[in-house]
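comment on this one:
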Amino acid sequence: MNSWDEFSPLREIIVGDATSAGVPSQTDLSAWLNDYPELSPSEREQVGGQFPKRVIEETNEDLADLVSTLREMGVVVHQPPASDHEQEFGGPGWKTRGRHSYCPRDLALVVGSTIIETPSPSRGRYFELSNLRELFQGYLERGAHWLGAPRPQLRDELFLTDEAGNPTLGEAEPAFEAANVLRLGRDVFYQVSRSGNEIGLRWLQSTLQLLGDIRVHPLRGLYQGTHIDSTICFLRPGLVLLNPERVKQDTIPEALRGWDVIWCPPINEPVAPLLTRTLSTPWVGMNLLMVSPELAIVDSHQIDLIRALESKGITVVPRQLRHSRVLGGGFHCVTLDTVREGGPERYLD
């Protein structure tokens, strides 16, 4: 295992599986926080269960095409079968069902030769990495390091509301998801949001200190939703793709202010999502996978984004994830790179 960044030449990767994907009951506080926070109490009572068969089958067709594409590029691909997310489980004071195995990026953070299982604030994701355990153990046996954050209790006091009655994440214990983090060699960016709190940031800072001289850059106030990878995408050293709805010229993170910026063009959504309630905004269309600094896998509908990338010398391989908004993940989300050629570089010095 060796993966320090988001763009150096890709050699080995994990791809998700949408089988049995769904959402837990939204009456659960943690689900309301991260799934459909805009729902009213009465609307929340109507939501929960497995996604339609068509969504799951077509998504698995698209994932199979992604696997074939990556293998044709010479990348070693792992796709463990999805866990059974219909089973009920729980902790002190709560019960839920699972979510999906569609987004392996969300809860597993790879820094160099170390896997870190992150403490999601979503109760439904408590056992989400179970289908990757055998694979992670194999990496351990071949020399990787395998860490887990403290298992969160996920008691009700972690889940708060703001003055407007919207759900927010409290500070009762460390809680964050790996998809709140982007890697840039020995620099790591952490987005504080509904899926990552301040005490989770502190835990990650203290843990990465054990792995060497790694700087953690907190990002506050950019995007209060969840993950970072539809807000900021590192394309290669010195070139970054930014979401113009969430980042402005004067709010570009200080560490990136000398970089060349591609402002993501408006997202093209020619076909409305099959379901009216979606786990992602249209900006999941900018959620791309860099195979190397010169090669990207991008949503085939995003013609303007593809042209912008090509203007910077990046070759684009267009592919589709027909239900990325419904399931909550684009090409970066549904993959977890475990081996890239890059090392622990200082790209910001």
Observations:
- The CA atoms of residues 295 and 315 lie 5 Å apart.
- The radius of gyration is 19 Å.
- The longest strand covers residues 10-15.
- The chain has a mean pLDDT of 96.
